[in-house]
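Changelog note: in this version the structure field was regenerated for every chain. One regenerated record is shown below for reference.
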Amino acid sequence: MDKIYHIGTVGQPWGAPEKAQWLAEQDIKRSFFSEVLPEIEALADQFTLVKYGKLDYEAVCGKTYPLYAVKSRDWQSFKPTILVTGGVHGYETSGVHGALRFLQTKASHYSPHFNIVVIPCISPWGYETINRWNPDAIDPNRSFGQDGKAIEALEAKQYLQSLDTDFALHIDLHETTDSDNSEFRPAKAAQDGKVNHNWNIPDGYYTVDDSEHPSPALQKAIIDAVAQVTHIAEADENGRLIGEPIQQPGVINYAKASLGLCGSVTNAPLVSTTEVYPDSPSATPEQCIQAQVAAVCGALDYLLSLG
């Protein structure tokens, strides 16, 4: 079903007035400072916390958000380096809390084998406003390319480059929600001066491989691990998930570098974007968090199996 967004005029891309109207409608719905930051700070006994930047949104909401990465302490040059990112889209709750839960419960098991870097919440303003975009109406997950403009993406990218290391694997934790069809995709279409054409929201978990550098065996390992926790999304009547053809059960492909996605931020040969469905009647918020943890662990176990 097509949906006309309430801001803008069909056929005319947004200008400054439309973006200002959109921003004026955003408000704080939950707290990064009470729900996320204390969880990060509590990890200081086990890990190295790195404040790699900040988001000065004082003029927007009266807040400045610290940006943190969490690193394993026994960092050694001979070990493979792996990256886990969450909250690129701040509204995707289990991405943030799945990254934190991995650190809290599983990372120490893998740290003898890997150098681990986790950025749990790339977009804290998006977390608080339950938003896909940043205050400039820019999608951080389309801003990791050379022409990216979202400060959230640029800060994370600069930090990761400063590590001066080759990454073996990157897992980027996401969700697909009913609000993608009801709010975020219609807003994006309106911003572009177009009409949104909704796709079917998959009921279940799936992953997005990189069509430019596919790693199908990694995706299968992740799907197999997550299937122990929650159900895997099945293809729609057209054999697709979110409009994309199925590559294998629970897996579709996107061109990550071409789209400026977070999954292209490193030189890792193994990359996966996870997608859980928190609005499913068959999944709880806790299952969604556990599914994200299972995805990371399944990926790391696969990497270990390569020897």
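Spot check on this record: Residues 114 and 198 are 41 Å apart (CA to CA). The mean pLDDT is 96.
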